[in-house]
Structures are given as C-alpha cells and as structure tokens.
Amino acid sequence: MKQLIQITAGRGPVECSFVVAQVLKLILEECKQENFKHTVLHRTEGLENGTLQSATVAIEGKDLSKFLETWVGTIQWVGKSQYRKMHKRKNWFIGVFLLEEKMLTELDLRSVQFQTMRSQGAGGQHVNKVSSAVRAIHKKSGVSVTVMDTRSQHQNKKIAIARLTEKFYEQQLEELKKRVQSTWENHLNLQRGNPVRKINGTDFKKNKTQKNRYKKERNHLKNELRKEIWNK
Predict the structure, then answer these.
(1) pTM of the model
(2) Could you give the count of Cα atoms lying within 13 Å of 136 in the half-sphere of its Cβ?
(3) Domain architecture of the chain: domains with CATH
(4) 226 versus 44: which is more confidently predicted?
C-alpha cells in the first residue's frame, strides 16, 4: 500500500509551523519503527528557523491503514509558545491529510525506446564510425536522455537507463510538488476539535512526565538533605 500525506499548519501562526516540523519528525520516527518506506517529497519552510508551513510525505508498507488512522485528522499540541513567551494560548492545532494524487510510478522499461547513433566530438575515428551513442526515450512521459560517454554501445545503454530513471523520477516529483502547492483547500479545511492525537510538552518527548517525576524526587532529596544540615 502506498499513500501520500500532507502535514499542514493551515492558516495558523508560527507556533503551528513549529508543531508541523515536530510532527514530521515523529511520523518519520514511527515509519522507521514500523519498517515503512518513506520519502519527504516537499517542504514549505515557515517564517522562523526550524519551522515548516507544510510537508508532504510518501509512505509505503503493509498495514499502513492502521498507522494512518492514528495520524490523519487534527493534531493538538498543548504547550507554551516558543516565540511569544507572554502569550497565554497553550493549545495549537495542525492537520494531517491524505492526498489523492497518484503515487510515484516506477519506470517501465517496456515503454522505453532505444535509438543508436554515431557519437560526436572528441574520441577518434572509432567513435565517429561506430554507432555507439544511445538515446533512450520513455514514450509515455516523453522523457529522454542521450549518452555517448563510452565507446561501448552496451555500456552507454546501461548509463542511459540509469539517467532516464533518475530524470523520470525527478519529473514526477516536480509534478507532485506543483499539485501539493496548489492544494490550498487542505489549509482551509483544517478543523479544530476531536483531535486524533494530542501531544503535551515543548520537547515532544513521550517520557517527559517520567523525567519530571525523577526531577521532583531529586529536588525532594536535596531539600531533605538541607534540612538535616541545618538541624545539625
């Protein structure tokens, strides 16, 4: 199963862009834990360093629907603003949406047409007399490359396939980026309330509560030690 998701701050302030960047990290960490293949296709930087207005991720793996159920929807973060210390608001909302665009497709070599031609330029008489250069054309997309790196037609064909695959992939990424940038309805449809996930604390760490408990215990022991010293 393959799916594209978009994480967005909507029309929210810089604090929401901060949350988008942090949620992206959490999603990528969980993808690694679940052994999902994942690629960040697009990022829109926020106004402050380390913030993101939106991010688009391609995810592939088994039982992906269960994973998406825990993320797709409204995400609520409860924490103090990192940029406006005196701001009283503590609840910030971002959205995670499924994108309906088709997933990146792999290059089908059966759709690739190869043409041979004589190489031009430096290389001696052998290069000019033998049709060693190779042009590879992907008929469906129109993407093409021409390779004349070596005197071997076989080697040039291998190189052409590699470069055509890379160029084909880059073209699809550019098309996806354009579609993502034009998907403003996601930003307008961000709903507050009924969040699918609620995150507390400025560090976004799951064990933050446990750390606080240990800190309180240490402080308590220090106070008890001070009392004993003063009593002596």
Answers:
(1) 0.58
(2) 25
(3) 2-104+183-221 (3.30.70.1660), 109-177 (3.30.160.20)
(4) 44
